[in-house]
Design a protein that fits this description.
Elements (H helix, E strand, L loop, with lengths): L4 H28 L17 H8 L1 H34 L5 H13 L2 H15 L6 H26 L3 H8 L4 H29 L3 H6 L7 H8 L6 H48 L2
Amino acid sequence: MRLSKGANRALKVATGLTLAFIYIPLAVIVIYAFNTSQTLSWPPDGLTTEWFGKAIDNTGARDAFLLSLEAGALATGIALILGTLASLAVARYKFFGRETISFLVILPIALPGIVTGVALNTSFTQILGVELSLFTIIVGHATFCIVVVYNNVVARMRRLSGSLEEASADLGATPWTTFRRVTLPNLRTALVAGGLLAFGLSFDEIIVTTFTAGTGEQTLPLWILDNFSRPNQLPIVNVVAVIVILISIIPVYAANRLTQDEGGATAGRARGRKLEAEATAIP
């Protein structure tokens, strides 16, 4: 569909305003990370890179960064296992309450983080008697990471025909062999994309972490929140925020590329099958 010159110009302006609305605040943080002054003054007094070295040498920031990596990796691993199992059950089998289960799996991502945090804190400390620690952080993060993996995998499963799995079973393959040799290869990119997005969500989560972190456990977002009000730490906080932005871009970009590549590959296979069918029909 072709747009008129006026409509095309208006669409470009609207797109530019939308991007500016989203990214100007992030650009300000990036500029402040190079500010020579410890105070937030605009325009900056000058530019320097000394805060990056101090941020790298900061023990608290480094430990919080490593803890966030550990929590994100483990929460993503749990989410990949449970989210995949749930998606296989919903997409491949018919049973009473299937849609209800699908709704309940997705629900945590829609709940306010503070509600989830309070519920988890109460369950751990009052009902289960579990001391808040890295384990409770991982469990808390996994509750919403599962949703991301589930959505990616169940969408892929619904696009895939079950005929290959049925053929594998007819040839005598066990369910595990069928999953390993047939289902899993078709889900590979969906799993990677879901895992990357889940890790990104876990890495920058702060509300649920506040209610599930034990004494002395501090992820990078918690460290940023704790040090933001300290004037002597503010330049380092800005640098760490820039690092978090860069780290967050990586999984989102990779997941987006995987999704696009898979879409192109699927379209290519469909076109190939169409051409093959047309060629076969030619007398």
